[in-house]
Amino acid sequence: MCDEIDAASDLEILNTEIALANRPIPAPRSPVCLNADCGEPSLDGASYCSKECCEDHARELWAAKNRRAA
């Protein structure tokens, strides 16, 4: 019975290592606000100058992704 448990444990470790190796690399923080309309310096540890700019940019990205050609 220990052989099945060891095999399951090894499989779990392998799947975890594969998932970690294939995860997307996060984009580095931007010194300038990523909202194209703004151009202000970003807050420390963020890529936006304010919460509103972050929300605006998220809406723009969502709209561009979901835009359909007529």
Automatic annotation (TrEMBL):
This is Uncharacterized protein. It comes from the Bacteria.
